[in-house]
Amino acid sequence: MRQIHITVYGEDHCPEARDDEEVVVCARRPEEERYRVPPALRERRDRPAESSWQARNEVLEEDARTMRPDSCSVVGSAGQSGCQAAFIRQWYNERRGRRR
Hints:
Layout: E1 2-9, E2 22-29, H1 39-42, H2 53-64, H3 83-99
Parallel strand pairs: 1-2
């Protein structure tokens, strides 16, 4: 037996089964829900809190840093020369964190 699950909106009709081997199950939602993001995605709790553009940019910069020159890693060109800069960045971030 084949089952078909369909969501219909407003006054739309539920399609009929084509033969005896098919079952059509319809869920009816209000018309104003037709073009909205589904509730399961709309109400996600694991979404991070809103953050500023600058904070998101800092995360991206830090993630991409290992592939650039002066990155203090074995990956990328001239990676070994950036260790001192990495220590200074770490010190600055720790100091900024203590002020808050």
